[in-house]
């Protein structure tokens, strides 16, 4: 008898404490929907509470459940039929009031997006077969009917991230470099896109790489000059390895906007991109940059916005500046006579001075070695200055 009375007393005491003195709000767990996420079709949701509560729910301020009693630890399932809703932003509001005297309350909002629109897209500015010379860049642009969560382009066994042309734009783009040595032929370019609700889209087009008649050139630089250059270089770093590392660390962010400009007012081009050059010291090789001239020690400026990632002297390129424009796109300027008042890490604007035209390094006269790399592949920088690129 006494054990039963004791048990009854304990149960009554717990009930009195819970009913009159419990001040904790209900813990509400809603699965199947995430704040800010996008959904299509029927969305299956589950509601779980840590205490017995009356639940009220509103969908876009319309009452869909009024003080529905949900026991503790009992899963309450319901469906949000997004097919009956318009595309765009919506909100689910859930209110849980427990059964205590204080009627402790929890209110949670779940804003979400309905997207039942099929994913469509089209290439911009591409003919049936797009032609590009060796050593140039393929500028790929795709217009979608809505924002997408991921887009990649695949070409010649390589994958390239696509990114928005500008904030909130539904035009996505990427830049694909073509090696000077790439075999002229017709190749397939594939773009794969996924939207926020998992719809996929694949677009394909053909790219024809065309043989380019690269020129030939002979350069002579005295050994006496190169011995002096060796004395001026503090440490012989491998510029190629440095550029590869900088490409890998380039931010996944478009730091520039619009067309590039030339880094000097070009009086004459002394060596075109891709020219097959012969020298006594370096042998025969492709000169994968443009050599341009103006007056000695004239100003050299940034051709586009970016961040300075190299300011150093090297044996062959002399005083060198490298600007990172984001997404693995780098501009390099060599043989500078002197540097402007900039440092590594500084952001520079299009047209900002970066140095003066010189002949440091492996150079026979005053000129600017202007190089551009996309994914660490040297490409013709002059193409990037064309308004229709």
Percent helix, as a range, is 10-25%
DSSP strand tally: 31
What value does the average pLDDT take? 91
Query: In angstroms, what separates the terminal alpha carbons?
Result: 94 Å
Radius of gyration of CA atoms, rounded to a whole number: 32 Å
Please state the overall shape, judged from the principal axes of the Cα atoms.
Answer: elongated
Largest sheet: 8 strands, antiparallel
State the secondary-structure class: mainly beta
What is the number of helical segments per DSSP (H or I, 4+ residues)? 3
User: Strand content of the residues, in percent?
Assistant: over 45%
Q: Which runs of at least 5 residues are low in confidence (pLDDT < 50)? A: none
Summarize the structure.
With 389 residues, the protein is mainly beta. The protein has helices at 2-21, 223-232, 239-248, and strands at residues 28-31, 38-39, 42-49, 53-59, 62-70, 76-81, 88-98, 105-114, 121-123, 129-133, 137-144, 150-155, 158-161, 163-164, 171-177, 185-194, 200-210, 216-219, 268-271, 275-279, 283-287, 290-293, 299-301, 306-314, 318-324, 329-336, 338-339, 347-348, 353-356, 368-374, 377-379. The longest helix is centred in the N-terminal third of the chain and has 20 residues, at 2-21.
Structure report:
The protein has 389 residues and is mainly beta. 10% of the residues lie in helices and 46% in strands. It contains 3 helices and 31 strands. Strands 19, 22, 24, 25, 26, 28, 30 and 31 form an 8-stranded antiparallel sheet that branches. The protein is elongated, with a radius of gyration of 32 Å.
């Amino acid at each position: 008898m006494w054990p039963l009375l004791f048990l009854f007393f304990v149960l009554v005491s717990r009930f009195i404490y819970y009913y009159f003195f419990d001040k904790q709000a209900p813990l509400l767990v809603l699965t199947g929907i995430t704040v800010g996420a996008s959904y299509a079709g029927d969305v299956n949701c589950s509601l779980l509470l840590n205490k017995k509560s009356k639940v009220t729910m509103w969908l876009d301020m319309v009452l869909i459940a009024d003080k529905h009693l949900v026991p503790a630890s009992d899963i309450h399932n319901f469906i949000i039929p997004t097919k009956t809703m318009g595309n765009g932003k919506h909100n689910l509001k859930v209110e849980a009031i427990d059964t205590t005297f204080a009627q402790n309350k929890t209110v949670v909002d779940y804003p979400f997006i309905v997207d039942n629109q099929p994913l469509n897209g089209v290439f911009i500015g591409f003919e049936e077969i797009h032609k590009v010379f060796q050593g140039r860049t393929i500028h790929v642009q795709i217009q979608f009917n809505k924002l997408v969560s991921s887009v990649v382009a695949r070409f010649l066994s390589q994958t390239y991230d696509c990114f928005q042309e500008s904030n909130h734009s539904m035009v996505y783009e990427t830049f694909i470099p073509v090696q000077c040595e790439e075999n002229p032929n017709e190749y397939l370019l594939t773009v794969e896109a996924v939207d926020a609700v998992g719809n996929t889209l694949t677009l394909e087009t053909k790219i024809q790489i065309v043989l380019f008649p690269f020129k030939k050139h002979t350069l002579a630089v005295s050994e006496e000059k190169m011995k002096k250059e060796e004395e001026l270089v503090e440490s012989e770093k491998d510029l190629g390895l440095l550029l590869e590392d900088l490409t890998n660390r380039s931010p996944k962010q478009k730091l520039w906007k619009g067309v590039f400009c030339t880094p000097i007012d070009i009086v004459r081009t002394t060596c075109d991109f891709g020219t097959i050059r012969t020298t006594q010291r370096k042998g025969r090789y492709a000169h994968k940059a443009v050599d341009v001239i103006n007056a000695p020690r004239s100003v050299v400026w940034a051709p586009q916005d970016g961040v300075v990632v190299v300011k150093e002297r090297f044996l062959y390129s002399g005083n060198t500046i490298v600007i990172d424009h984001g997404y693995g796109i780098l501009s390099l300027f060599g043989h500078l006579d002197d540097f402007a008042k900039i440092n590594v890490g500084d952001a520079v604007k299009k047209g900002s001075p970066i140095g003066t035209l010189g002949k440091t390094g492996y150079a026979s006269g005053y000129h600017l070695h202007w190089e551009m790399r996309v994914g660490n592949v040297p490409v013709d920088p002059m193409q990037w200055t064309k308004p229709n690129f």
